Amino acid sequence: MKNKFVVIDTETTGNAPKKGDKIIQIGAAVIENNKVQQTFSTFVRPYQHIPIFIQQLTGITDEDVQQAPSFKETAPQLLELLQDAYFVAHNVPFDLHFINQELIQAGFSPFHGPAIDTVECARFLYPTAPGYQLSQLAEWLHIDHDRPHQADSDAIVTAYLWLNMKKKLYTLPYETLDELRKLAVHMDSNLSAFIQEAMLTTKKQIEKDIEHYKGLAIKKHEPIPPKQTHFQAQGETTFTEAFFSADGTLSGRWAGFEYRQGQEKIADAVSDALENRSHLLLEAGTGIGKSLAYLVPVVQFSKQQGRRVVVSTNTTNLQAQLMQNDIPLLKKVLPHEFEAVTLKGKQHYLCLRKFRQLLHTAPATYEEVLGLAQVLVWILETDTGDVEEINIAGGSNSAFWEKVRSDESSLSWYAKNYYYRAVENAKHADVIVTNHALLFADVSNGNGLLPSYKHVVVDEAHHLEEVAAKSLGMQVDYFHVTQVFHKLGVAEESGDFQRLRTVEETMCPYFGEGWHQQRKDAFTLLKYEADELFRMLHHYSLKTVNQKETDIGKVSVRYRPQKELSPLWEAVKESLKRVLLLFEEEAQAWHRFVHHLQDYIDTGSLEQGLLHDFHAAVTEAEEMCDVLFHLIAEEDPNYVYWMEVDKKGAANAAYLYARPIDVSEKLADSFFAQKDSVILTSATLTVDDSFSYVMKKWGLLDVAPPALQLSSPFAYEKNARLFVPSDITTVKDNEQDFIQETAAFIYQTASITEGKMLVLFTSFDMLKKTYYQLKQWDEASDFALIAQGLKTGSRLKMMKSFQQYNKAILLGTNAFWEGIDIPGEDLSCLIIVRLPFAPPNEPVLQARTEQVKREGGSPFKELSLPQAVLRFKQGFGRLIRHKRDKGVVVVLDKRMMTSSYGRYFLQSIPALPVAHKPMDDILNDIADFLDS
């Protein structure tokens, strides 16, 4: 086996060598005998201009390469290094492709030897890494990386990364290596020789903390303690009201302590609410430290009273912050021990049975190969099996995770089921940290998903109504229907049903060829009828006169299932009848098939897993058809129904939704009335210094719980400025002019702030038009323009890209108005393009508007305005995240200063200097303020 590795990194003028992009720098590190023995680095003259954004990214200028050798002059030395070696690179397809293209153009033969991609290897050998960019891995593994995006530095770092990974590979258990060996044939990297050598080595090793179960090597877990019927009260602890005081417990035990008066007030209020069995509304501005402030009395109450407390968050970011930062800190500083665990819905947890089953099936895609390899290594390290730990492409929404996530797993795997362990651990915990989706699924399910509890803290509580409505609502779309049908696998030869047919014919033949062919034919007809149903729904949407356009360009149509009288709707209902009749007949046949096989298949076998998954798919399909019936053939007057289609999308791509118009009564009866104490907290709960708006929509007006409002301790009057242009065109007067002026102002401001700008839109269409205008003006690529919906990647990836570039402008819509944290100098300017009023044709808002009108109220004052003010407060809060942050907010909407309701927006934010003046004057003021 070759033991020479040449690690190469290139910097280039772009991404496409066939379109003329050229190499501008090559770095190489030669590894032999597991050590870096030699390095090589050179600039390469590209004979073309280096784009500005490449210069910003790499630090390499046209002057640096002006006297550099050509690639043709460099090639012989490079080829000599590569003789009898592995070509190693961080993203081999990129670097090897560039090198080979340049070699061919220079008259040399391309490199055809073995290659190793350290991105690919890192993805499965480091499944919990925060990211797979070289700089991210270097920081995570504590490898010095002083000059990112310089080829010589990147090559050295990649070399040490490969040495780390190669070492880890040789420590893996035999079973893990054996499965990786089978997967390696589908990978880009030539790893087979290393894996086989590692398999010979690992037989001699004693594997610590690893157990072997049904052919898998997994991390050993301590047995779950016997279930206790009740918590045991712990008695008094040494906790006092002075815990957060300047010379209190926390200050003496935590070096990072900063006295904040607000924390004392929060802790006292939460403690009173828990002890007095009352609810509490708590608005706490950014920087108070409310998480720690409510956790201390929560833990204290739980230990003293022996009562479990649930803490619910809307985002996984806050959930992770609580479990990784706040709770470990409290475990160090509190004078008594306590247990806090995370509990999520079962879809967040790995099912080992389904994973093992997928391992024994030919992988469908390259992403599935990598997913399987990642999980093989991850199960040696994880205690939880929670998808949030593992960096799978696509995360919990990926097609791969759909195949391996937990469901009602078979009993033979019960002891190794991660979800079961999480539930059991939650039963013995003092504090359970969960999410709003599971909290309200539990409420909708009659309190059967979470261990019993009477006390809960709802953080990020401004999402309460939205999550409750979604939990109580229904939705289905064509993609989901086809996904469920695919799980059944009746028509596909490799599907579960067809694989079970082979089992039946081998072990216990009964149904016969004719019966199986009938199932296949009937299923083909069922899929056709389902296609027809969604085609008709799509057609109905486009032909209906009351159609509206959504923010992202879809056609949206409100409908009344039992009130639609058109022939088109009658055709839809007839189509639904055909689908349901066909499905009911087939479901009965599938149940008979399952019942027959159950008596012949061994417990714990792969065949039993197949049968279990098929039966689960039948159940899911039955539930899906039930939802279809409710959405098309039945009607609840307290619900709003609508469908959405994409004009340019597939002819059957229709989405159906139903949501309750008002959840206040349901919340009051099924949530607040059932709990002793619910603490509702957020940075945005009040409108005009009143909690009335949220109290009404949550059903709390009759209860009138105590409320506490605390402003942010940050010095906004010193560190921030708010500007509203007086001479910008209004959208109502001329939308095109408004977009032109918005783009111009963004570009001019970015020149002052050197990027570091977040621009919040309320309309994706407006974002898109502004982005393309900016692209036209920024011909020299002075700025990295990152736009939501126009660049691929998640919000997190966009945030990382924004912070990576020196001069970046981030354009975002809904997802960026809250829940993002860009501290310090990375963000110095926030532009809010328009006041965030929800589109009046949004179906749920429209239905609630009609309800308020029927009751004689004012929809604008009671719904639209409060909702917009709370949204505005969330957006404004993106700028100042820490006490030393400094920056400006610009609102390009004159209504803030000229309308009668503008004061509500101004009063909703901390006191700070506000200027309403022409745009040119604002630009001068921004420059003066940021330079001061």
TrEMBL record:
Coiled coil: none
Co-factor(s): [4Fe-4S] cluster
EC number: 3.1.-.-
Keywords of this entry: ATP-binding, Exonuclease, Helicase, Hydrolase, Nuclease, Nucleotide-binding
Catalytic activity as recorded in UniProt: ATP + H2O = ADP + phosphate + H(+)
Entry GO MF terms: 3'-5' exonuclease activity; 5'-3' DNA helicase activity; ATP binding; ATP hydrolysis activity; DNA binding; DNA-directed DNA polymerase activity
Motif DEAH box: positions: 459-462
InterPro entries with a match to the protein in the record: ATP-dep_Helicase_C, DEAD/DEAH_box_helicase_dom, DinG, DinG/Rad3-like, DnaQ, Helic_SF1/SF2_ATP-bd_DinG/Rad3, Helicase_ATP-bd, P-loop_NTPase
Domain Helicase ATP-binding stretches: 249-514, 271-474
GO biological process, one term: DNA replication
Broadest EC class assigned to this enzyme: hydrolase
Residues where ATP binds: 284-291
NCBIfam families xref list: dinG_rel, dnaq, PRK08074.1
Function: 3'-5' exonuclease.
Family: Belongs to the helicase family. DinG subfamily. Type 2 sub-subfamily.
Protein name per Swiss-Prot or TrEMBL: 3'-5' exonuclease DinG
Species whose genome carries this gene: Alteribacillus persepolensis
Gene: dinG
